């Protein structure tokens, strides 16, 4: 009994000195978020990002350009001055119009005074009715001439304002033919403005694909500069006649979820969508066999994997097309799936 008492402290010291068991390291896996992708048989058309509203800009009067205040690709705001013409000739015309208006105003004032005086004389019987009628007609003519000169002066003043070309909307300069010293006529395009806001994809459609293009339920837009990012589109405009040179139909696809990353002029691919064109596709390595049925490992928000039985519609090269068992947005293991077990917590690789 005494030996047992002596041994008890030694056993306690041995137990305290034993290191705790280290936790099992998390198994790293590579995952993918499931989404509906267009089929390889979907029609893909190259295109370009364009603004919904575009307009050529021109001066409303002719003259010599003395200043171009913007460059190609500049972002401009509504009311900003973009270019100016030499205003000297229009300033002189406006000054002449102001002088003519002042002269007509003086003549009209004099005619009104004469008319008032002759009315008093007529009331006293000193002048005839015919003479009063002449003064009335002279006063009316003077007022009409004043109105005409005032309108002419207003038009000449507006022409002075037209020597400054202002942006009528916010947007980006996408066309440029403005050079200091260049003489332009009224209405001759010097700049091209793509308005900010809605964006579209301009594509050119071959004749043979016209019916297929029209029947598309929607479009998936992929930008070459932004790989891995998809946009959704809808047909907004389709030309009624083919281009005589290329025999293609111009079409514009409105982008529903355009963002700041989508810049004007970017090259794009627009793929048609239909009920049979969209499907879930996974790499073959993601599929494992459980109970003689194909399954995939689905990762929940806590990082724990669970087996999800699936039905395979077809094998397309190194990919499988899933018929059922998964929904969009699910996270599925695509590398390291064969080593996992139910309920295991994993580490997601970037």
How are the SSEs ordered, and which strands pair?
Blueprint: H1 2-16, E1 27-33, E2 36-38, E3 44-51, E4 54-58, E5 63-68, E6 75-76, E7 81-85, H2 88-124, H3 129-162, E8 164-166, E9 171-176, E10 183-184, E11 189-195, E12 199-206, H4 210-214, E13 218-223, E14 230-238, E15 248-255, E16 267-273, E17 278-283, E18 288-290, E19 293-299, E20 305-309, E21 311-316, E22 319-324, E23 331-335, E24 346-348
Parallel strand pairs: 1-24
Antiparallel strand pairs: 1-23, 2-17, 3-12, 3-16, 4-11, 5-7, 5-10, 6-9, 7-8, 9-11, 12-15, 13-14, 13-16, 14-15, 17-22, 18-19, 19-20, 19-23, 21-22
Helix pairs in contact: 2-3
Summarize the model shown.
It contains four helices and 24 strands. It is of the alpha+beta class. α2 packs antiparallel against α3.
Model description:
The chain has 350 residues and is an alpha+beta fold. The chain folds into 4 domains: 27-36 and 278-348, conserved putative lor/sdh protein from methanococcus maripaludis s2 fold (Beta Barrel); 44-52 and 197-273, Efflux pump adaptor protein, beta barrel domain (Elongation Factor Tu (Ef-tu), domain 3, Beta Barrel); 56-85 and 165-194, OB fold (Dihydrolipoamide Acetyltransferase, E2P), CATH 2.40.50; 88-162, Helix Hairpins (Orthogonal Bundle). The chain contains 4 helices and 24 strands.
Please trace the helix and strand order, writing H or E for each element: HEEEEEEEHHEEEEEHEEEEEEEEEEEE
Overall mean pLDDT stands at: 84
Q: Please write the CATH class name of the largest domain.
A: Mainly Beta
Task: Provide the structure class.
Answer: alpha+beta
CATH architecture annotation name of the largest domain: Beta Barrel
The tally of strands reads 24
List the total number of helices: 4
**CATH superfamily annotation of the largest domain:** Efflux pump adaptor protein, beta barrel domain
Q: What is the number of domains? A: 4
Give helix % range: 25-40%
Q: Cα-atom Rg, whole angstroms?
A: 40 Å
Largest sheet: 6 strands, mixed
Shape field: rod-shaped
Distance between the amino and carboxyl termini = 62 Å
Which regions have little confidence, pLDDT < 50, spanning 5+ residues?
none
CATH fold name of the largest domain, please? Elongation Factor Tu (Ef-tu), domain 3
Residue share in β-strands: 35-45%
């Amino acid at each position: 009994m005494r030996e047992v008492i002596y041994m008890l402290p030694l056993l306690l010291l041995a137990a305290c000195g034993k290191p705790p068991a280290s936790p099992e390291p998390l198994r790293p896996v590579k995952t993918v978020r499931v989404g509906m992708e267009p089929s390889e048989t979907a029609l893909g058309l190259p295109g370009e990002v364009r603004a919904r509203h575009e307009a050529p800009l021109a001066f409303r009067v002719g003259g010599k350009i003395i200043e171009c205040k913007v460059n190609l690709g500049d972002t401009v705001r509504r009311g900003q001055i973009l270019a100016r013409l030499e205003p000297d000739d229009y300033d002189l015309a406006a000054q002449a119009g102001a002088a003519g208006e002042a002269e007509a105003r003086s003549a009209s004032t004099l005619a009104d005074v004469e008319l008032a005086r002759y009315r008093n004389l007529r009331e006293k019987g000193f002048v005839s009715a015919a003479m009063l009628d002449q003064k009335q007609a002279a006063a009316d003519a003077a007022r009409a001439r004043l109105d005409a000169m005032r309108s002419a002066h207003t038009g000449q003043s507006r022409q002075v304002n037209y020597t400054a070309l202002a942006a009528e909307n916010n947007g980006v300069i996408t066309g440029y033919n403005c050079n200091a010293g260049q003489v332009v006529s009224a209405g001759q395009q010097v700049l091209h403005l793509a308005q900010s806001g809605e964006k579209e994809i301009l594509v050119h459609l071959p004749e043979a694909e016209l019916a297929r293009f029209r029947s598309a339920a929607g479009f998936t837009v992929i930008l070459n500069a932004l790989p891995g990012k998809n946009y959704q589109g809808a047909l907004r405009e389709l030309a009624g006649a083919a281009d005589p040179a290329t025999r293609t139909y111009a079409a514009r696809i409105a982008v529903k979820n355009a963002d700041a990353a989508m810049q004007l002029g970017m090259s794009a691919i627009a793929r048609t969508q239909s009920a049979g064109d969209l499907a879930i596709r996974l790499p073959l390595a993601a599929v494992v066999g459980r109970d003689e049925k194909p399954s995939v490992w689905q990762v929940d928000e806590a990082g724990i994997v669970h087996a999800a039985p699936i039905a395979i519609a077809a094998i397309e090269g190194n990919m499988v097309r899933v018929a059922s068992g998964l929904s969009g947005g699910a996270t599925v293991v695509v590398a390291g799936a064969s080593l996992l077990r139910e309920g295991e917590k994993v580490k997601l690789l970037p």
